[in-house]
Amino acid sequence: MKFILTLNIILISFYFAEPSPYILGGNEVSDGEIPYQAFLNIESSQNKTKTCTGTLIKPDLILTSALCGFDFNLGYAIFGVSNIEDVSSSLNADVVVIKNVTIHENFNGTTLKNNVALVYLNRPARLKDGFIETITLPQNINENTLIGFDVSVSGWGPEPSYLKRAQVTVISNLSCKIRFENVLETEICAGSSTTAGPCTSADNGAPIVTVDRETGKKMQIGIYSYSNGCAYGNTVVYTRISSYLAWIEEN
After folding, report:
1. Domains of the chain
2. What is the mean pLDDT of the chain?
3. What is the pTM of this model?
4. What 8-state DSSP symbol labels residue 136?
């Protein structure tokens, strides 16, 4: 009973929070189109609230950016709905309290090197086919084979708070260095002339996803790290997940 009351208070507080920026140029998606994505509401040790996103890689584990999970104190994750305002009425929604966050031990807040984090849930999310599912991570993949191919990126926005998705194209790190000369091999870049993709703090943790050509399953290859602002034609830098598989497994 105490947990239900606390959860209701959390949700009421969320409804009156300020709207967040969003995936610029994206299209709204329906419930179940991106079943692996989690909306994260995190309160810092200084009682400041931020919203960001992540992906469910195990029933009780979310992958996100260090910027999203940094200075975690309290928080919760929402699964199963596109419009966050539908949480209280949806039969598919699940709200889970966050237990803890692990930031990469070598995360650099200035260069954003090692911008990756794991969010541990207080209990496993209630998986439901087509609405709440885990996402596959890359195994034995050379992302260079994806250069020139489209991938999708998704994140939430302001009222009415629908999850949005945009198509972006993977570009080589060599081309990316024209915009970001310090881009690392542990990062991957993508851009589009028709969208800016993720470009604000509310997009922290946003995934870029492709389809595994062998299995046909959706596979996440990157986590939004930084960009040069919100403008169409932006190049965006993502944390390259394949570079952190060992770290994810160890933690």
Report:
1. 33-121 (2.40.10.10), 143-242 (2.40.10.10)
2. 85
3. 0.88
4. B
